[in-house]
Design goal:
mainly alpha; single chain; globular
Length: about 220
Protein backbone atom coordinates (compact mmCIF):
# COMPACT_ATOMS: atom_id res chain seq x y z
CA UNK A 1 0.00 0.00 0.00
CA UNK A 2 2.86 2.39 0.82
CA UNK A 3 4.35 2.16 -2.65
CA UNK A 4 0.99 2.40 -4.38
CA UNK A 5 0.09 5.60 -2.53
CA UNK A 6 3.56 6.99 -3.17
CA UNK A 7 3.27 6.32 -6.89
CA UNK A 8 -0.21 7.88 -6.99
CA UNK A 9 1.21 10.97 -5.27
CA UNK A 10 4.05 11.30 -7.78
CA UNK A 11 1.71 10.67 -10.72
CA UNK A 12 -0.74 13.28 -9.43
CA UNK A 13 2.01 15.89 -9.14
CA UNK A 14 3.34 15.09 -12.61
CA UNK A 15 -0.14 15.22 -14.12
CA UNK A 16 -0.96 18.54 -12.43
CA UNK A 17 2.28 20.14 -13.59
CA UNK A 18 2.63 18.70 -17.06
CA UNK A 19 -0.56 17.18 -18.43
CA UNK A 20 -3.62 18.91 -16.97
CA UNK A 21 -5.66 20.50 -19.77
CA UNK A 22 -6.97 24.03 -19.75
CA UNK A 23 -5.58 27.44 -18.90
CA UNK A 24 -3.04 27.85 -16.13
CA UNK A 25 -4.21 29.72 -12.99
CA UNK A 26 -2.37 32.88 -14.02
CA UNK A 27 -4.47 33.19 -17.18
CA UNK A 28 -7.63 31.50 -15.93
CA UNK A 29 -10.66 33.73 -15.20
CA UNK A 30 -12.47 30.79 -13.56
CA UNK A 31 -9.63 30.43 -11.05
CA UNK A 32 -9.78 34.13 -10.20
CA UNK A 33 -13.56 33.98 -9.73
CA UNK A 34 -13.30 31.00 -7.39
CA UNK A 35 -10.49 32.46 -5.29
CA UNK A 36 -12.54 35.62 -4.77
CA UNK A 37 -15.75 33.57 -4.32
CA UNK A 38 -17.38 35.48 -7.18
CA UNK A 39 -18.18 32.54 -9.43
CA UNK A 40 -21.81 32.43 -10.55
CA UNK A 41 -21.87 28.66 -11.01
CA UNK A 42 -23.07 26.89 -7.82
CA UNK A 43 -21.37 23.59 -8.64
CA UNK A 44 -17.99 25.29 -8.98
CA UNK A 45 -18.44 27.15 -5.71
CA UNK A 46 -19.66 24.02 -3.96
CA UNK A 47 -16.81 21.73 -4.97
CA UNK A 48 -14.35 24.52 -4.16
CA UNK A 49 -15.88 24.90 -0.69
CA UNK A 50 -15.85 21.13 -0.17
CA UNK A 51 -12.09 21.22 -0.64
CA UNK A 52 -12.06 23.39 2.49
CA UNK A 53 -14.46 21.18 4.43
CA UNK A 54 -12.72 17.90 3.56
CA UNK A 55 -9.43 18.78 5.34
CA UNK A 56 -11.45 19.70 8.44
CA UNK A 57 -12.97 16.21 8.34
CA UNK A 58 -9.51 14.68 8.06
CA UNK A 59 -8.44 16.81 11.01
CA UNK A 60 -11.31 15.32 13.01
CA UNK A 61 -10.20 11.81 12.08
CA UNK A 62 -6.48 12.28 12.57
CA UNK A 63 -6.20 14.87 15.37
CA UNK A 64 -9.10 13.85 17.59
CA UNK A 65 -6.82 12.58 20.32
CA UNK A 66 -3.64 13.74 21.94
CA UNK A 67 -1.33 10.74 21.99
CA UNK A 68 2.38 10.34 22.53
CA UNK A 69 4.38 9.47 19.48
CA UNK A 70 5.77 5.96 19.56
CA UNK A 71 8.41 4.30 17.47
CA UNK A 72 8.14 5.30 13.84
CA UNK A 73 4.66 6.72 13.93
CA UNK A 74 4.34 9.76 11.69
CA UNK A 75 2.74 12.86 13.25
CA UNK A 76 -0.37 13.81 11.31
CA UNK A 77 -0.71 17.49 12.18
CA UNK A 78 1.81 18.95 9.65
CA UNK A 79 0.10 17.11 6.81
CA UNK A 80 -3.36 18.11 8.02
CA UNK A 81 -2.37 21.78 8.13
CA UNK A 82 -0.91 21.59 4.63
CA UNK A 83 -4.02 19.79 3.35
CA UNK A 84 -6.10 22.96 3.83
CA UNK A 85 -4.14 24.44 0.94
CA UNK A 86 -2.89 21.38 -0.91
CA UNK A 87 -5.60 18.74 -0.38
CA UNK A 88 -4.56 15.26 -1.46
CA UNK A 89 -1.12 16.55 -2.40
CA UNK A 90 -0.45 16.81 1.35
CA UNK A 91 -2.37 13.77 2.60
CA UNK A 92 -1.14 11.19 0.11
CA UNK A 93 2.45 11.28 1.44
CA UNK A 94 1.15 11.06 5.01
CA UNK A 95 -0.87 7.91 4.32
CA UNK A 96 2.00 6.43 2.33
CA UNK A 97 4.61 7.24 4.98
CA UNK A 98 2.47 6.06 7.89
CA UNK A 99 1.58 2.72 6.29
CA UNK A 100 2.54 -0.75 7.50
CA UNK A 101 5.50 -0.72 9.86
CA UNK A 102 5.00 2.86 11.00
CA UNK A 103 1.45 2.21 12.13
CA UNK A 104 2.25 -1.12 13.73
CA UNK A 105 4.83 0.49 15.98
CA UNK A 106 2.14 1.67 18.33
CA UNK A 107 -0.72 3.29 16.49
CA UNK A 108 -3.02 0.31 16.58
CA UNK A 109 -2.36 -0.54 20.20
CA UNK A 110 -3.09 2.84 21.75
CA UNK A 111 -5.99 3.11 24.18
CA UNK A 112 -7.50 6.42 23.18
CA UNK A 113 -9.93 6.44 26.08
CA UNK A 114 -7.03 6.69 28.52
CA UNK A 115 -5.27 9.53 26.75
CA UNK A 116 -5.60 13.08 27.86
CA UNK A 117 -6.98 15.17 25.03
CA UNK A 118 -5.44 18.38 23.80
CA UNK A 119 -7.50 21.43 22.93
CA UNK A 120 -7.50 20.38 19.28
CA UNK A 121 -8.48 16.88 20.35
CA UNK A 122 -11.49 18.20 22.23
CA UNK A 123 -12.64 20.19 19.20
CA UNK A 124 -12.08 17.19 16.93
CA UNK A 125 -14.10 14.85 19.15
CA UNK A 126 -16.89 17.32 19.76
CA UNK A 127 -20.07 16.12 18.09
CA UNK A 128 -21.04 19.75 17.47
CA UNK A 129 -17.99 20.10 15.21
CA UNK A 130 -19.11 17.10 13.20
CA UNK A 131 -22.70 18.32 12.99
CA UNK A 132 -21.63 21.79 11.80
CA UNK A 133 -19.43 20.25 9.10
CA UNK A 134 -22.26 17.93 8.06
CA UNK A 135 -24.76 20.79 7.82
CA UNK A 136 -22.31 22.87 5.78
CA UNK A 137 -21.79 19.95 3.41
CA UNK A 138 -25.48 19.18 2.99
CA UNK A 139 -26.37 22.85 2.65
CA UNK A 140 -23.86 23.48 -0.12
CA UNK A 141 -24.86 20.22 -1.81
CA UNK A 142 -28.50 21.31 -1.81
CA UNK A 143 -27.46 24.67 -3.27
CA UNK A 144 -25.50 22.99 -6.06
CA UNK A 145 -28.19 20.43 -6.91
CA UNK A 146 -31.06 22.93 -6.97
CA UNK A 147 -29.28 25.91 -8.53
CA UNK A 148 -26.28 24.51 -10.38
CA UNK A 149 -25.69 23.41 -13.95
CA UNK A 150 -23.50 20.28 -14.26
CA UNK A 151 -22.84 21.00 -17.94
CA UNK A 152 -21.25 24.33 -16.99
CA UNK A 153 -19.03 22.53 -14.48
CA UNK A 154 -17.96 19.95 -17.06
CA UNK A 155 -17.09 22.70 -19.50
CA UNK A 156 -14.99 24.39 -16.84
CA UNK A 157 -13.36 21.01 -16.15
CA UNK A 158 -12.11 21.03 -19.76
CA UNK A 159 -11.15 24.69 -19.98
CA UNK A 160 -9.62 25.35 -16.55
CA UNK A 161 -6.55 23.48 -15.27
CA UNK A 162 -7.48 24.55 -11.74
CA UNK A 163 -11.00 23.08 -11.94
CA UNK A 164 -9.56 19.96 -13.56
CA UNK A 165 -7.05 19.40 -10.75
CA UNK A 166 -9.43 20.33 -7.93
CA UNK A 167 -11.93 17.77 -9.25
CA UNK A 168 -9.33 14.99 -9.29
CA UNK A 169 -8.15 16.17 -5.87
CA UNK A 170 -11.68 15.81 -4.53
CA UNK A 171 -11.95 12.27 -5.91
CA UNK A 172 -8.62 11.32 -4.32
CA UNK A 173 -9.66 12.80 -0.97
CA UNK A 174 -12.82 10.67 -1.14
CA UNK A 175 -10.84 7.49 -1.81
CA UNK A 176 -8.30 8.35 0.90
CA UNK A 177 -11.12 8.77 3.42
CA UNK A 178 -11.87 5.07 2.99
CA UNK A 179 -8.30 4.29 4.03
CA UNK A 180 -8.63 6.74 6.90
CA UNK A 181 -11.82 5.14 8.16
CA UNK A 182 -10.36 1.65 7.83
CA UNK A 183 -7.32 2.58 9.91
CA UNK A 184 -9.52 4.23 12.49
CA UNK A 185 -11.68 1.12 12.82
CA UNK A 186 -8.55 -0.82 13.78
CA UNK A 187 -7.86 1.63 16.59
CA UNK A 188 -11.46 2.04 17.70
CA UNK A 189 -12.16 -1.69 17.41
CA UNK A 190 -15.11 -1.17 15.08
CA UNK A 191 -16.25 -3.22 12.12
CA UNK A 192 -14.13 -2.73 9.00
CA UNK A 193 -17.42 -2.58 7.08
CA UNK A 194 -17.50 1.10 8.05
CA UNK A 195 -14.81 1.60 5.40
CA UNK A 196 -17.55 1.62 2.76
CA UNK A 197 -18.92 4.85 4.27
CA UNK A 198 -15.92 6.66 2.83
CA UNK A 199 -17.28 6.26 -0.69
CA UNK A 200 -19.84 8.98 0.17
CA UNK A 201 -17.77 12.16 -0.04
CA UNK A 202 -17.46 14.05 3.26
CA UNK A 203 -20.85 12.85 4.53
CA UNK A 204 -19.73 9.23 4.99
CA UNK A 205 -16.70 10.03 7.18
CA UNK A 206 -18.77 12.50 9.21
CA UNK A 207 -21.47 9.90 9.87
CA UNK A 208 -18.72 7.52 10.97
CA UNK A 209 -17.37 10.13 13.39
CA UNK A 210 -20.85 10.95 14.70
CA UNK A 211 -21.47 7.30 15.56
CA UNK A 212 -18.23 6.92 17.54
CA UNK A 213 -18.73 6.43 21.24
CA UNK A 214 -17.20 9.19 23.33
CA UNK A 215 -15.00 6.79 25.35
CA UNK A 216 -13.10 5.66 22.26
CA UNK A 217 -13.27 8.94 20.34
Amino acid sequence: MRWILGLVWIAFIAYALLLAPGQSPGNDPIFKELITMQSKEPWLLTVFSWLGIFPAVYACMLLRTSVKERGGRVPAWPFVILSFGLGAFALLPYYAWSSSADRSSGYGSLHFGRQRESGIGRVATNKLTHVVLLLLTLGTACYAVTQGHPDVYMEAFKLSAFVHIMTIDFVLLTLLSMIGIYRDTEVSRRSAAWTAAGIIPIVGPLIYLLTLRRDIA
